[in-house]
3-oxoacyl-[acyl-carrier-protein] synthase II (Micromonospora matsumotoense), 406 residues
Amino acid sequence: MAVSVAVTGLGLVSPAGIGLPAGWDRVCAGEPTADHDPILADGPVTISCRVPDFDGARLLGPRAARRLDRFVQLALVAAREAVADAGLDHAGWDGARVGVVLGNTAGGTATVEQQSRVLLTEGPAAVLPQLLPMHLANMLAGTASIELGALGPSLTVATACASGATAIGLARDLLLAGRCDVVVTGGSEAMITPLEMAGFAQMRALSRRNADPRGASRPFDVDRDGFVAGEGAGILILEREADASARGARVRARIAGFGASADAHHVTAPDPSGRGIELALRAALADAGAAPGDVDHVNAHGTSTPLNDVTEAGVLRRVLGGADALVTSTKGVTGHCLGAAGAVEAVLTVRSIEEGLVPPTANLTTLDPAVDLAVAVKPTPRRIDLALSNSFGFGGQNAVLAVSRA
């Protein structure tokens, strides 16, 4: 009998709100979160999607707020919610059988930039002794393992904007291999800083709608001009379904399949043929034992960039054909959460399946004629037995999760 991997807990910290209920409600309302960002006021792009009212000192304690970069703080808050949602108590579990696999792109960029200024203005003696543990990317999983008493494999995965989805796929592999009984997985990102955003702006990747922040992220729209950077964390608790059932846990959904691939094409631009994306999509379906016609819903990567949206849409049309799959991109609300995007969107995909509801693609006014897909523009009730969640990153790194109804 095939082993099934269950999602038993969810945690979400996103621009749509702190906690899954708040985030889900705003995503379903199609209410964009982009706004003017004082930190970016001197740059060419002055808008972003921030987590509202996030206070690390209040949520985690003053000591943690001083010693942890924001990308770790976001993850810990989401992880606490997910563990509680799963009905687990990390004080009582067998930590040797608990793994942590989290995705992240850049580590603690805010800490690096701030401490670089300290070095230049005050000298090396003024640099924080906590600099390295605050900014190293591996500290995402490392700190979560410490927080949760998880003694199993502790991995931080970096596949750019596919990091969160890749982490979930690898976490599933650990369970299938019998190396863990529980895996805390997902991704976190907090790289909205002047330097990082200047780099994205110089690449012409960001929307320049500074005068209309709420209307800037518009996936699949004919007038899209780039993505809006976001931040956040999405955490899932995964267990083998038999183990979850044995302890009486609620199974929210299943991670039924995972596909990963590389474009082997360009460091930033997607392969216009979509060959790599297609490989990942077909691999996820095959891993799930599913046919293209079985797909009811796709939470698309849908970044609101001219190249990505058309390429992804072409591949979805080619792979799914005339399948009745309703597509959405929740980035119209949350912006692009970069390395956390795949995890945030996996959480939302699970909720879509549970609620029987496809969230709208915010700001989609006129569908690009090159996008030959059924794209949701309003909250749409639908029974979803199988959904795909797509994530693609710089370097041509692709990850697709197949998520099925419990």
